[in-house]
Amino acid sequence: MAASAGPEIERLIALLSKLPGLGPRSGRRAALALLKKRDTLLAPLTAAMVEAQAKVRTCSVCGSLDTSDPCAICSDATRDNRLLCVVEEVGSVWAMERGGSFKGRYHVLGGLLSALDGIGPEALRVGELLGRANASEIAEVILALPATVDGQTTAHYLADRLAPTGVSVTMLARGVPVGGDLDWLDDGTIAQALRARRPA
Ligand SMILES: [Zn+2]
């Protein structure tokens, strides 16, 4: 397709189109919004991106992102060292923290095992996880991985690898969401909720 907006603008569109959830069409809309609001949107966004590029780093303990290493969560002395929550990506740490009910530590795997995509344990932070489970005062590892085939394959693999460390390994319950109506749930969720039932 021939460039129609000049190479600088086309480059901006091409880069924006690579963002998750955006394609060429949304990238074009985003570029136009930025270029129309150069002072109020483009300039502060550019400054924020430059700052993020300069300051954000990967935490060498948990694999999350922060401006300090170790990150704020790993450095927080008030959190429970005995609980370690394993998640797929940094976004899951943010989601758990939004919930506000987990006060332990995290371990970001950086992906999931996938036979289809050729992702093996060596591509994930599995060795670091085993090291933490062996070396520290961790009593329980909570596998908070997606309820997908790859998520469950990864959870079972990790449970096997963690077994010799003697730590207790648990998984998040699956079931009826808070405020959820049974009529709207898929059969798999209802079956899981039924299996995970508990005394009332
Ligand atoms: Zn950390």
How would you sum up this structure, described in words?
This protein is an alpha/beta fold and 200 residues long. The protein has two domains: 7-55, Helicase, Ruva Protein, domain 3; 65-199, Dna Topoisomerase Vi A Subunit, Chain: A, domain 2 (3-Layer(aba) Sandwich). Helices cover 44% and strands 10% of the residues. The protein is built from eight helices and six strands; from the N terminus they run H-H-H-E-E-H-E-H-E-H-E-H-E-H. The strands form two sheets. A four-stranded parallel beta sheet has the order 4-3-5-6. Strands 1-2 form a two-stranded antiparallel sheet. Helix 1 (7-16) crosses helix 2 (24-36). The longest helix is centred in the first third of the chain and has 18 residues, at 38-55. It is globular, with a radius of gyration of 21 Å. The model has no long low-confidence stretch (mean pLDDT 93).
Keywords:
single chain, 200 residues, alpha/beta, Helicase, Ruva Protein, domain 3, Dna Topoisomerase Vi A Subunit, Chain: A, domain 2, four-stranded parallel sheet, two-stranded antiparallel sheet, 8 helices, 6 strands, 10% strand, binds zinc ion
- Under the CATH scheme, which class of the largest domain? Alpha Beta
Average pLDDT figure = 93
Helix content: 40-55%
Q: What's the tally of helices?
A: 8
CATH architecture of the largest domain: 3-Layer(aba) Sandwich
Q: What ligands can be seen in this structure? A: zinc ion
Poorly predicted runs of 5 or more residues: none
Give the SSE order as H and E letters. Answer: HHHEEHEHEHEHEH
Cα distance, first to last residue?
62 Å
Q: Estimate the global geometry from the Cα principal axes.
A: globular
The major pleated sheet works out as: 4 strands, parallel
- The overall number of domains is 2
Major sheet: arrangement of strands: 4-3-5-6
Radius of gyration: 21 Å
SSE class: alpha/beta
**Total E-strand runs:** 6
Query: The CATH topology of the largest domain, please?
Result: Dna Topoisomerase Vi A Subunit, Chain: A, domain 2
- Residues in β-strands, percent: 5-15%
